[in-house]
Amino acid sequence: MRNIPVVTKNLLLVNIIAFLATWMLQLRGIDLNDICGLHFFMASDFQAWQLVTYMFLHAGFTHILFNMFALWMFGMVIENVWGPRKFLFYYISCGVGAGLLQEVAQFFSFYLTISGQNPYVHLSDIFAIGQQLSTQLNGWTTIGASGAVYAILLAFGMIFPNERIFIFPLPIPIKAKWFVMFYVAIELFSAMSSSGDNVAHMAHLGGMLFGYLMIRYWNNHPTSGYGPSRGQQFFDRLKDSFERRRNAKMKVHKGGASVNDDWEYNARKKANQEEIDRILDKIRRSGYDSLTKEEKQKLFDSSKE
Description:
The protein is mainly α. It is 67% helix and 3% strand.
C-alpha cells in the first residue's frame, strides 16, 4: 500500500470500507445499496447524488474483487502519468457518465416494456406512467465502480496501446489496444442481447465512452496537461530514478580502499546500470511480461538496493 499513488490508494480504501459497511448494516436491516445505489430517475427513491455514491458500492465479493484489482493494476499507472487531481477528475466524471448512460438505457427499456404491453402508448405518455409506477421502479438500482474502472482500462489502452498484457484464458500476451477492443466488443454484444444477467453493460460502455471523449479532448488540447508523450515520460521517470540511485552509489570510497578496488566497484556498478537500462527499454518496447525470469529478478533486486 505504501507504493500505491494517493488517489488510487484512497479509492481502494473507500470502496472496501463501503463494502464492509454495507455488509454490517445489512445485519441490522439497513440496505445501503437501496439508499446510495443509483435508482432509475423515474423511481420515487431517486436522488441526483446517487450518480456519485453508486460507484462505491458492490453487490458481492467477486464484484468488488475484479473492480479493485483492475483499479489497482491500471489505476496506479494512469495516476502516475496524469497526476492525482486529473486522475480523480477522470475517474469520477467517467463514473457519473456511466450512470447517466445507464439511466438512458433504462428509460428506453421501460418504454419498450410498456409499449410491448400496450402498442398505443406514445413516448410522451411514458413519464405519466412512470410517475404512477414510481414505487415499483425502485427495483431498478445500479451499483458498482465498473463504469469508472472500464474507463481506466480504456485510458491505459489509449496511452500505452502497444504494451502487452495477459487476458485469461489466452496463453499469450496481447497489446493493450486489442485488450480494450476485446472488452468493448464483449460489452456491446452483452448489451444488445437480452441475457438478463443483472449486469449494467450500458454503464460499462458509458464509462468508456465518456473516457474516450475526454481523452480525445485532452489530446486535441495539449495545454490541458494530456499529450501523447505523457506515457513515455512515465517510463523516463522510472529510468531516471534508477539513474539517480546509480549516481548516488557510484562514489569513490574513502579510507583504506585502493584505487583499483574503487575502479572495479564503479565498473561493476556501471555494468549493472547498463543492464537495468536495457531491461527498462525492453519494458517500454514490449511490456513487462516480455521479460525473462532472470530479468524480472534483476529488476526486483536493483529496486531494493
